[in-house]
Predict the structure.
Amino acid sequence: MSTKTGVNKLTVVHKGSSGTSIAFPDVCLTPGPPSPVPVPYPNIAKSSDTDKGTKSVICDGNPVCVKDSNFKMSTGDEAGTNKGVASGKIQGKAEFINYSFDVKFEGKNVARAFDMMLHNDKNTPPAPVLQPPLVAMGQSSNLDPEEINLTVEWKDGN
């Protein structure tokens, strides 16, 4: 499912937003003669693995990714069993290093499509979150451009 909510003209990232981030290289030590050999692996993280999303702000029925959120697992480096050269891990979390500077949910900056992430516990160069764009309908000429209709849903149903 894509998202219908935008921040700074970009879609917000949440568990159901179909966001994917692909980072390369994730250099991990891999068994081989002579042992171990540093090998660059592609690394993939998905928004469906969102952790530490918002507690009270929900978009499209999902908690939203904010400054401290992460995708709790990244994959692709499993063959590097001697772990990442910088992080000492494989399949580590992917963390946001970029987010909206002026829109905050629960006091934390909101993560959006194309915001940069580091994968495998900071073992990769930055890579963007890719997900479907925000599609808006054209505006009718009889609408007041100063009027904004906003619907807010609270988790407790109010």
Notes: The chain has one domain: 6-130. The radius of gyration is 19 Å. The chain has a mean pLDDT of 90.
